[in-house]
Structure formats: C-alpha cells, structure tokens
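Known limitations

Files may contain more than one protein. Parsers should not assume a single record per file. Below, a two-record file is shown to illustrate correct handling: read the sequence, read the token line, then continue until end of file.
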Amino acid sequence: MKKLVFLVSVLILLAASYSEAQEMNNKMNEHPDHILRVPQELKWIDGPASLPKGAKVTVLEGDLSQPGPFTFRAKLPANYKILPHFHPNIEHITVLSGAFHMGLGDIFDESKATELPAGGFGVMEKGIHHFAFTKGETEIQVHSIGPWGITYVNPSDDPRNQQATK
C-alpha cells in the first residue's frame, strides 16, 4: 500500500511539473525577446545564390542582411563543396549531424581539412581564408554577427558569377 501511495504521489508531481513546464514554454513563446524553435516547425528554403546549389537553409534568429546577431542552419548534401572563401565577421559552426570538413588556405585541398563530426565546433575569424566540404549528408548551425557575406578567394569560384555567365 505504501508503494502505491508513493507511486501515485510521484505521478502527481510529474504531471504538475509537466503542466508547469508547458505553461512556462507557452509564456516564453509569447514574449518577443525570447525565441524558441521546434524542429518540425522550421521552414527550409534553398540556400542563397552565394552558396553552391544543393544547400537548404533555415534562419533561426536575426536577419543575415542586417547588423546584429543571427543563427541559421544549413542542410548540405553528400559531396558538397564550398571553395576557398572568407567572411566579413567571425563565424561559429556547430555540426548537428553528419560530418563537416574544414581546412585553411587559398587552395581547396581535402588532405589539409579537419573532419568535424556531429557535435563538433569550429570558429573562423573575420577574413580567414578557408574551405569546407561534406562526404555524406550533413547539417550545421552557423551563428555570427550580420550582415553575413561570403567572398570567394577566386572570383570564378563564386556561384553568383557562374550563374551570370550561363
């Protein structure tokens, strides 16, 4: 009998805690200074023209074209390559799934890259020349300070230039 009373008490406490957490979650979603994103509600779109075709992105926070913090996720297909480039601000990358390979320099050289597996993290300082690629499907999260931009070391590597010549 004591075990049953104990079990019922625990279940009541769990139900009350769940209800309280749910109410707090609802209140936080109503507050404009809090951003909460549920994966199934994310809206994925084709990546910007500055990235090679095949990327899908979703913005979690901010406006990449404006000054201020932003966070976005990118789903990258297998064998995806971003040739040597740099950014106008520091860039932080967290690998959510798959593996993201990153290397430094002006020349794309897979042998000089470091594999960042799921859970891996990288920081590229403003102006640092680097490249990246995947071998399998990969999802990353990027956060930085806007406006976001990408400048390719070799302008002919820029997908925007390739589209203009077609």
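...continuing to the second record:
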Amino acid sequence: MNSMDAELLPLSGLAQLMYCHRRAALIHVEGIFEENRFTLEGHFLHERVDEASSRSEEGYRIARAMPLVSGRLGVFGVADVVEFRPQPYPVEYKRGRRRHREADQVQLCAQAMALEEMFNIEIPEGALFYDKSKRRQVVKFDEKLRAITMQAAQEFHRLVREHCTPPPVNDERCEQCSLRDQCLPTVVDKQGSVHRYVQSLYGAAS
C-alpha cells in the first residue's frame, strides 16, 4: 500500500478500528460522530499538548503537533510530541490512567512508521503518556506490533474503500462509546438474533 494506490486516511482511525471496527466505520465511512465526557477530555488534553511549536529541552529538541504522513500505511496525522534525541522519539498523550491498550500502541507505532519513512531511519521505541497517571509507558516497536499496525491499516482502507459498516459487538466497549446512541448495539443485536432464530427454524424445517 502507498499513497499512489490509496487515498490517505486519518492515522487516528487506526486506534478507532482497533477499539471497534463498527465505530471506525461509523466515523470514517458514514461520517457520524458525537462527543461524550471521554472524547471531550481527550480533546482538551490534546489542545493543551498540540500547540504547534519546537523548542529545546533536556539537551534535545521537542516538536509539538508535528505533521506526519505514511505512504506505506496510507495515513496522515499529527504527532502530539516528537522528541529528537537526536533520533525521533514519538510520545502520544492519552486521557486516563496508564494501562495496556493495543489500540493506543498501534496508533503510536503508526506514528513511528511514518517518522521512519520521513527521516529514512529506524525507530525502536516511543512512549504513551497517560494524563491521570502522569507517567509514561514505553512501547517497543517490535515485528509483532508492526505487523498488527500494517494489518489494521489494510483493514481500515478496506472498510472505507468498500463502504463497509460491520454489525455491532454489543459488549463492555459500548458503555463508554460516544456513538452508542447512533450505533444502537442492543437494538441491532436483537434484530440479528431474531434473524438468526428465523433462519434456524427454516433450516430445521428443510
């Protein structure tokens, strides 16, 4: 995949996709988005961090709100912070407490892969900074995470290209999702259950 083969999509969509394929499609295929407390907290955090600037600190340069593009992944976006040590070291800011969340790690890895293309270097690690914990979580960009990130990018492009919106999952992820009222996971899930039940009846009768 490269920018000549596919339209560039928002890098942040990879995190949406890793959280929930349906959520990613509702936002990037159907153009639906609603705010809730969690998304607003995230926006306020990024507004504090993402004022475009470049300054020196602790012996190295720090760039904020740095534009990124990856032809390989077919995405574009903005890195919250890139520390030049002198090698670029991406830092993504997240709301909440420090935790292991694959969606966050994939988003950070995609930023690193974009930086690798832009600077023609290899970046072994970066960090996630969780606002409530005030602590960093170091993320190693190993082959497994890179493969997951590439697969996510391919799936993201497929959803957009095919205008595909998957059915809802209706699990614990839905409780904090800002698109719950638009997605209607319980209603659609019940409809799907009825459809499967009718199919089972006709299948049993045949």
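Parsers that stop after the first record will miss the second one. For reference, the second record is described as follows. The two ends are 46 Å apart (CA to CA).
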